[in-house]
TrEMBL record:
InterPro entries: ACOT13, HotDog_dom_sf, PAAI_dom, Thioestr_dom. NCBIfam families: PRK11688.1 (NF008675), unchar_dom_1 (TIGR00369). Residues 62-149 form the Thioesterase domain. It comes from Rhodoferax sediminis. GO terms for molecular function: fatty acyl-CoA hydrolase activity. This is Thioesterase family protein. SUPFAM superfamilies: Thioesterase/thiol ester dehydrase-isomerase. Gene3D superfamilies: Hotdog Thioesterase (3.10.129.10). Keywords: Hydrolase.
């Protein structure tokens, strides 16, 4: 468990609304793939993607494109870092904390594709393993609607 993180459910509605707006509306690729936050807690986040025709791979009818899986996992890893940073700085206003995310960027990403992305919708989960002053490390999961693990990933993000 990370230090300096607030208990579950302690984010203000203003912070949650602002983070959802950044993640779901202001990041164009997230908007295109329909990535939606379903749970936002300091220690773990979850999101959902609904299958739609434009997300299917070119040569794989009914299978989610691997690039969508990779980008989705990268996005939720970054979102988990945002939540952890927000929790670390609870002494600041929600607006001040939301300004901290402009310098966040992926510096390393590894995805393991375990099973094909077949289904009507998918759940993505991420948690921060370590939040340092300059780099954060995350672990992510991409699950089928029935909870079966389809892909997993790890990533590092620059936070300063």
């Amino acid at each position: 468990m990370m230090k300096n993180i607030v208990p579950i459910g302690e984010f203000e509605p203003e912070f949650i609304t602002g983070l959802k707006a950044i993640f779901e509306e202001k990041i164009p690729f997230n908007r295109v793939i329909g990535l939606k936050i379903t749970s936002l807690r300091p220690e773990q986040i979850a999101a959902r993607i609904d299958m739609k025709p434009e997300l299917v791979g070119h040569y794989a009818h009914n299978r989610l494109h691997g690039g969508v899986i990779s980008a989705g996992l990268d996005s939720v890893g970054g979102l988990a870092v945002m939540a952890a940073i927000g929790a670390r700085h609870m002494d600041e206003s929600p607006a001040q904390r939301l300004q901290r995310f402009g310098k966040l960027g992926t510096i390393d990403l590894r995805i393991d594709y375990l099973r094909p992305g077949i289904g009507e919708h998918f759940e993505l989960r991420a948690q921060v393993m370590r939040l340092g002053s300059r780099v954060a490390s995350t672990r992510m999961e991409f699950l089928a609607a029935d909870g079966k693990l389809l892909s997993s990933g790890t990533a590092a993000y620059i936070v300063s």
